[in-house]
Design a protein that fits this description.
By secondary structure, the protein is α/β, with parallel strands linked by helices. It contains eleven helices and 13 strands. Helix 8 crosses helix 9 and helix 10 crosses helix 11. It binds uridine 5'-triphosphate.
């Protein structure tokens, strides 16, 4: 059983400046819901009880967002707008423990995860990068959980990426494949297209063994001053088997402007309350 999830949200979000100057990138909405809430809901859906944010003091709006707001709830009741209460204070959050840990310096994803060590202890845990948005009948995390339940080993989601873009990701070297479960032979952070061991890149959902912390601690900073999670996963391969699953579903990279706009259009077209208007608007754009 996996009950703890780590959500790193301390990044600088430079690709979204100036929007991300006062509003955390993770709080930018796709239609009417902040990116980070989609990830939190995906985690809760598989039974996560502790959500551990790795954050920074500038991003206090994230904490505010997940706290119950009784003042606005009262106002909504008084003005007969009760139907909005479930959006303001969703019931699914009520038995969840939200934790907020600061990452003082933005020394990369691996460094962010390392901050959670004390709260995780020796359990396996989920990691969700909120700027990767996934939509599928069975959620991405739930696809990983199924494999974890059988193997009791770390498992990470991958998706196929074209050659021109592979250098931006962690890429796995697949080993034995059985029932769509890939045993990872090696993993390399941001390889050149010619050195990439496959076209399968890590995407933002993981279930990791707590042994990862030992490996994060011994991982050296890269030339950009960051500790890469991929490097620690590579080192963990010396101790344990790690599996991968090609994610079956739709993925939007909302850390990039193109992906963010793509997700916004896709979701708008699926929202019955606005889709007709959106189609009309798109047709009218010259
Ligand atoms: P990204 O690299 O996509 O986010 O990290 P970023 O660094 O904020 O974005 P850019 O490149 O400057 O535009 C993926 C996730 O990891 C978190 C980010 O907040 C994001 O949710 N992260 C990244 C941290 O928590 N700490 C870090 O040091 C780096």
């Amino acid at each position: 059983m996996i009950t703890k999830a780590v959500l790193p949200v301390a990044g600088l979000g430079t690709r979204f400046l100036p929007a991300s100057k006062a509003i955390p990138k993770e709080m930018l909405p796709i239609i009417d819901k902040p990116l980070v809430q989609y990830a939190v809901e995906e985690a809760i859906e598989i039974g996560i009880k502790d959500i551990i944010f790795i954050t920074s003091p500038e991003k206090d709006s994230i904490e505010k967002h997940f706290k119950k707001n009784n003042k606005i709830e009262k106002k909504l009741k008084q003005s007969g707008r009760d139907k909005y209460i479930s959006k303001l204070n969703p019931k699914i959050f009520s038995d969840i423990q939200f934790h907020y840990l600061n990452q003082e310096n933005q020394n990369g994803l691996g460094h962010a995860i390392l901050q959670a060590e004390k709260l995780i202890g020796d359990e396996s845990f989920a990691v969700l990068l909120p700027d990767d948005l996934f939509f599928s009948k069975k959620s991405c995390l739930s696809q990983l959980l199924e494999i974890y339940s059988n193997k009791k080993s770390s498992v990470i989601a991958v998706n196929k990426i074209d050659k021109e873009n592979i250098h931006r990701y962690g890429v796995i070297k697949p080993g034995l494949v059985k029932d769509e479960v890939i045993q990872i032979d090696d993993i390399i952070e941001k390889p050149s297209a010619t050195k990439a061991p496959s076209d399968m890149a890590v995407c933002g959902r993981y279930i990791l063994s707590s042994k990862i912390f030992k490996h994060l601690k011994s991982t050296e900073f890269d030339k950009f001053g960051e500790i890469q999670l991929t490097d620690a996963i590579r080192s963990l391969l010396n101790d344990e088997k790690i599996f991968a699953k090609v994610y079956d579903g739709e993925k939007f990279d909302c850390g990039s402007k193109q992906g963010f706009v793509h997700a916004t259009i896709a979701l708008a077209l699926r929202d019955e309350t606005i889709s007709d208007d959106i189609i009309k608007i798109i047709k009218e754009i010259d």
